[in-house]
Amino acid sequence: MDFAKIYPHLSEYRSGQFERSVAELRAAVAAGMVPNKMFVDAKESINRAINEAAEAFLNSGPHIKGRNGQAHGQSDWWLDAYDADAFVSGAHNLPAALKRAKKHGGLSAYAEFIAALLPLREMLESAKPLIKKRGELPKVRSAAQIADDSKRMHCQCCGRAILANLGSIAHHGYERPEAYYQTASCMGAKRLPFEVDRKALGEMIGYMRDRLARDEKYRAAIKSEKRPIVFNYESQLIGPHRGGASRFKWPVVKRKFDVSRKSFAEFKEGPGSDSCYSIYDFDAYKARYVDGLSRAIESLKGHIAEEQARYDGWKQSHKWEGGEWVALKKRKESA
């Protein structure tokens, strides 16, 4: 695409911006992937350049004609484009402007100029099917990041790739891929990576099974009403009057309330008034609480099953040698 005709009619700033936008968009189209932000910026830059160039081209025409015998400030080409409704407004209406310019006898030069701009519209149209949002674009890693990856191994407990260039997994918090929180420390921190050992994973599974037993025992106690439901909440005490001044507020205090069949009426009128406004009796409140415990227990069971499968399928693949992790050579199958 040759846009030599457009450059003489652009300011220096617009010319440089236009050239960069065209080059970036052309390269993205050739690569088959156009970032959405790049397309939006390039489209705006190209449309502004088209409008500026078309306006400048019309103003460069002769000033011979007048209206009602009076000289006019605009060129004859501009006046003819006005009569033909052939003004350009961005790339999208170039075909319509060209069609109208061709019908007008005095706009042949203008029509030729518009025709030279049509490849810009075609380039924008060809880019549209290739537009990708930020989340759809492949992640580009720098040379430093790639080098850093070579120093990482996988944690036994959370399974994440963690820096291990000193012979053990660096300190990090526990985080599951689908979880929305992270603990301060993972059981796999400062232990051998999963490629080398599974002892820390076995210990974690043991702790998880102990927790499962405690959770099931607690749920049974709640069901049989041998233990109350502990409701944690926060309250803010209001201090006394100080002379004629209004009352001041004390800091927020964390509190808890033991909810039982006997105390439910007091609970509903007091700290539970906002959390159980649609619940009318203790049985419904207990059922909702037990249901929450059951969902958490089922989630924990699924987590244990996943980790047990990792534990059972473990095979050593690396060893620490000469200050770095070395992959074990695969044993050749005997004939």
Your description of this structure?
By secondary structure, the chain is of the alpha+beta class. Among the domains are: 130 residues, no CATH class; 100 residues, no CATH class. It has 9 helices and 10 strands. A two-stranded parallel sheet has the order 1-4. Strands 2-3 form a two-stranded antiparallel ribbon. Strands 5-6 form a two-stranded antiparallel ribbon. The two termini are 62 Å apart.
Key attributes of the depicted protein:
alpha+beta, 335 residues, disordered C terminus, single chain, 10 strands, two-stranded antiparallel ribbon, 45% helix
Report the average pLDDT across residues: 86
What fraction of residues sit in β-strands?
5-15%
Class computed from helices, strands and strand pairing:
alpha+beta
Shape: elongated
Specify Rg, calculated over alpha carbons: 36 Å
What low-confidence regions span 5 or more consecutive residues with pLDDT below 50? 331-335
Give the end-to-end Cα distance, rounded to a whole number of Å: 62 Å
How many extended strands? 10
Helix content: 40-55%
Q: Number of helical segments?
A: 9
**N-to-C order of helices and strands:** HEHEEHHHEHEEHEEHHEE
